[in-house]
Design a protein that fits this description.
Number of strands: 12
Radius of gyration: 20 Å
Order of helices and strands: EHEHEHEHEHEHEHEEEEHEH
CATH topology of the largest domain: Rossmann fold
Number of domains: 2
Bound molecules: nicotinamide-adenine-dinucleotide
Low-confidence stretches: none
Strand order of the largest sheet: 3-2-1-4-5-6-12
Shape: elongated
Mean pLDDT: 96
CATH architecture of the largest domain: 3-Layer(aba) Sandwich
Structural class: alpha/beta
Helix content: 25-40%
Distance between the termini: 29 Å
CATH superfamily of the largest domain: NAD(P)-binding Rossmann-like Domain
């Protein structure tokens, strides 16, 4: 039997971190060997199993990213954009693969991820679910088939705790739509006041923040006589946790470079 892939988890005490700890528990193909939280976190020193209501795992949460990465083969980071640039440099220094699921990344973080990918395999995914990977590919096909005279609008809904808007997934879907429309459309974030008629060259973006919604995305592609709506609804956070572990397994043993969830699912 092959040894499980050793994973270091960054953002271990967060909503997604805990979900990944639970998803990895009892699996034979992956094992979390190190867990990192921000300095000052009340969870430093906590056992990750006990943190999630599971039996003790023997892995305690630390703040030392590089030491954690030296114990692992793959890092999974779902934390905050303020973490990403430094953490991916540490992954490159430690020579391990890096799965980044954090959203709200800016130019600095994206170029740090690019730089790291020249040394190690790096997978960046604003959405770790198989359904969104499929939706992305369907979206390009639908817009190409229906033509540029159909309007495209994207509506996303998330829980009240989400800090970035629009969601990374909505931005990714918008990039796909703009590309399929020929590359010259602008993003239009919400509408308020006397905005005038809709321009033919815009892709509308709308963000709903309410309650405990895990993540819904609808792309509306509308002509004058018909409307196509492609909707994805995440039913639980476990969906993203399983996707993160699947991405980690995919990345293990891959050459340096940038990868996407499309690569993971063969799309
Ligand atoms: P959260 O706020 O519950 O958790 C984030 C955790 O990161 C916190 O525990 C925080 O203390 C920790 N953290 C902050 N700074 C840190 C540091 N310097 N070092 C280590 N840990 C640090 O948020 P969440 O709901 O778990 O989401 C985390 C990120 O993942 C967000 O960007 C979110 O949008 C994204 N997300 C992505 C997907 C996906 O499919 N890619 C799915 C869900 C959430």
């Amino acid at each position: 039997m092959t040894a499980p892939v050793a994973i270091a988890l960054v953002g271990a005490a967060g909503r997604m971190g805990k979900e990944i700890i639970k998803a990895a528990a009892g699996r034979q193909d992956v094992v979390i060997v190190a867990a990192v939280e921000r300095s000052g976190s009340p969870n430093l020193g906590a056992d990750i199993g006990q943190l999630c209501g599971l039996p003790p795992s023997g892995v305690t949460i630390t703040e030392d990213v590089l030491a954690a990465f030296h114990q692992a083969r793959i890092a999974i980071e779902l934390s905050s954009p303020s973490v990403t640039a430094r953490a991916c440099r540490c992954a490159a220094d430690a020579g391990i693969g890096y799965v980044c699921g954090t959203t709200g990344l800016g130019e600095v973080e994206l170029s740090a991820l690019d730089e790291a990918s020249r040394l190690v395999p790096v997978l960046v995914a604003s959405n770790l679910s198989p359904g969104i990977a499929v939706l992305r590919s369907l979206l390009g096909q639908a817009i190409a088939a229906l033509g540029p005279h159909y309007d495209v609008e994207i509506i996303e809904s998330h829980h009240r705790g989400k800090v970035d808007a629009p969601s990374g997934t909505a931005l990714e879907l918008a990039r796909c739509a703009v590309e399929a429309l020929g590359g010259s459309s602008d993003l239009r974030h919400g509408r308020n006041g006397p905005v005038g008629p809709r321009s033919a060259h815009e892709v509308g973006m709308h963000a709903v923040r309410a309650g405990g919604v895990f993540g819904d995305h609808t792309v509306v592609i509308a002509g004058m006589e018909e409307r196509l709506e492609l909707t994805h609804r995440a039913q639980s956070r476990a969906l993203f946790a399983q996707g993160a572990l699947r991405a980690a397994l995919f990345l293990h043993g891959k050459p340096k470079g940038r990868y996407t969830m499309g690569d993971v699912f063969g799309l």
